[in-house]
Amino acid sequence: MTGTVGGCAGPGFGSVPRKEDGRFVRGRGRFVDDIALPGMLHGAVLRSPYAHARIVSVDTTAAESHPKVRAVITGETLAARDMAWMPTFSHDVAAVLATDKVRYQGQEVAFVVAEDRYAARDALALIEVEYEPLAPVVDARRSLDADAPVIRDDLDGRTGPDGRGNHVFDWETGDEAATGVQFARAAHVSACDLVYPRVHPAPLETCGTVADYDRISGKLTVHATAQAPHAHRMLYSRIAGIPEHHIRIIAPDIGGGFGNKVGMYPGYLCAVVGSIMTGAPVKWVEDRSENLMSTSFARDFHMHGEIAADADGRILAIRVSVLADHGAFNATAQPSKFPAGFFGVFTGSYDIAAAHCRVTGVYTNKAPGGVAYACSFRVTEAVYLVERLVDVLARDTGRDPAELRMANLLTPDRFPFRSATGWEYDSGDYPRALRTALEMADYPALRAEQKERRAAYERTGAGTLTGIGMSVFTEAVGAGPRRLMDIMGLGMADGAELRVHPTGTAVLRLSCMSQGQGHETTFAQIVSHELGLPIDAVQVVQGDTDNTPFGLGTYGSRSTPVSGAAASVAASKVREQARQVAAVLLEVAADDLRWDVGTGTADGGNFAVAGVPGISVTLREIALAAHGGLDLPDGVDGQLTASTVYNPPNLTFPFGAYVCVVDVDPGTGEVDVRRFVAVDDCGVRINPMIVEGQIHGGLADGVGMALMELVAFDDDGNHLSASFMDYLLPTAMECPAWELAATVTPSPHHPLGAKGVGESATVGSPPAVVNAVLDAINVRHADMPLTPAHVWRALQGRPIRPDIAIR
Amino acid sequence: MGVTVNGVEHVREVEPRLLLVHLLRDELRLTGTHWGCDTSNCGACTVWMDGLPVKSCTVLAVMADGRSVRTVEDLEGPFGLDQIQTSFMDCHGLQCGFCTPGMLMTARKLLDDNPDPTDTEIREAISGQICRCTGYRNIVAAVRHAAVAEALGRGDT
Q1: Does domain B83-154 have CATH number 3.40.50.720?
Q2: I need a labelling partner for A300 at 20 to 30 A (CA). Which of A638, B20, B74, B136 fits?
Q3: What is the ipTM score, two decimals?
Q4: What is the 3-state secondary structure of A62-79?
């Protein structure tokens, strides 16, 4: 198949159907819970009912005597194996099973292995745990108080200066003095408190594993919901003490990840120990409540932002302070030198002279995690901050938010652009994206309609109010380079191995792992694009550490920027190897050969002798010859195979402009998202259909977070959002028919000109929705989620702060 | 108990508390029906019972005694895929594939009852199902696509 996208002509690229779909529409996907190994046992986790309590005793006698129970594991069992604690991704440790205290409701206390999943649950009720309840720290703003209970007494006062026991880190970026100078000369300063509440990625498939330890070979096979199989293998090795080469991680089909399946969870490790103890495979799959209560949450950033402008509305500087609630263990899954992730890109899409930000991380009695839910390592929080601040500035200075943005956007001639906080944006044309979005939305007509509706409402007291919100976002995705970015010391680079078989079909092995993004299709398209082979002639292997090269996996929109580049480079190497073989076949110098990628037939591309019409050899012919008896010159290996490790020189910086139109019923506070226009630029699009699908999903995330999603706690630290009846997700009724458009500004440093896109819409859409709702009700600020109750309260002049009303 | 699943009768002794979703998945090894939330909210477990979509995570297996259950595995017939399956593939109506079986069973029922649904009717029909990947637009498009294809197949004008 052929396609022309973003200036890249030739075979491979284009909106081709996905190779994965045939099994999924038949119900023949293979997810973790679909796996049933012979003799397999089932695990279940006993969890803490308290947010903070000392464990006095754990009595497992009755559970162990249950006829179907094969093993009961407690913190003590693990301590005997030196496995009661595990390292986190952020220089901390986390309990696998609690030994001393429980530190959040839902924390893992014991693990039962039984013959079926119902019996395992039954036995949990037979375990007697005596707790001594302690006062919890629920409100992050109280966590550093002198009299706050210390959550991490295991760290023995090593948590922060001045005995601030719940302190995790202080981090700052930007130039404080230069920012102060800009604020001093500003004609106008707007300030705003903004809470990005705790939310949860909630993939439809929960986390789970089937651990299978072979006592004879000493080999451990772990089937698991793992977005980063190779990083997980190293972790299992370190924690369980099993040599890394004896561990095989297999990630089967994954039912959505969104960051939730990056982390290492106690259930996985307990299943491993269960399998070691019983000699049988052990399955553990969490239920929805367990998923929402205990696995990686997202956000929980309490921000104070200030924005300074001159008299002409020129934005001069932004200043931010943040309190970050990290829960009971600092387990954020992000590059380890970035304690606040990539929040430093908070200057957004604007030409801002100076910026400064200070982030303080604290412990609370809540689940750990912190970076998840398609956030590009906290770019979501950064974009929400700046796009909300710009709207507040527009309101405070009586300017139109679209005009204010247009006047301050970076122009294309400024790229590559070094931001005030030190990030080098690779490429962009922001004004074009915003112009396109405003034209698609027909912005002037919308403003006129809004005015009429408001007038009618004020005249009659009936009807709805229209709001128009926008955001222009800049994303930062595709981590490394590895000298700057690592996870537990593992540099963020990814491998790819490509082999062309004798008959001219190919297999590509990758270190990344799809959770629904369609890697089997997109990566086959990359090879097709490079070698001219049909997409169907390229098999993509991923998610099996015994059969794929090492790499850091799929999160932070890394797959196309890093693994996509690796695939492209590996294919280029194979092509150059094929050139050498072709030179021998055609008895010419390799430099005299010209590559023609062809049209995607089974022959693949071909090498032709320059200036000699009719003399050429196809990739398929070369592949057979390369495996045959041909005498190859020194330094040219036989066969057609290449591998590479791609270490990205920089992040890629996709961007976009979104316009959201809402109708709000002032009587009920109900919000109807009537339209959503999204113009995305992620550089060259390999499969535009898949790219658009990614954007659709992210836009729904934005509607969800802006209007309904919230992980809430009561004063005792009880989790109030532990089911889909309480943790609300958008359905088809809350989502409009998204209106999409694309601009294409290739990345100058990616071999295909592509940038990541998986999280763009999740990052960019929440401020557009919030700005629209607040525009409709003419309120300066109210925090997410803007549920009907929140909107109604905001209309009465009493907006709810989610961190105050519901800690 | 006895239950007919996809035309095959199964007689089983089951615990009264066994959920239909676990009977299908663990005992009958029909793993196309997925277990997503336990509370009837997500719809990944949707199957038909006597021709009506039900959420099998909140149906006891014994409630299916003497009844007929249809799962996603039964959509493909001897002459190939059901149109709704083809349309989901053609319109990119799925990504991770976890919600897809439930979506397909609900959509099939909608089209059987209402061969020419509006977009709003489609959105209402699938409003008891959650998809975290697609933002629903392509699912709506897939159902419309199937409706049009089936109308053409019937020779409707």
Answers
A1: no
A2: B136
A3: 0.99
A4: HHHCCCCEEEEEEHHHHH
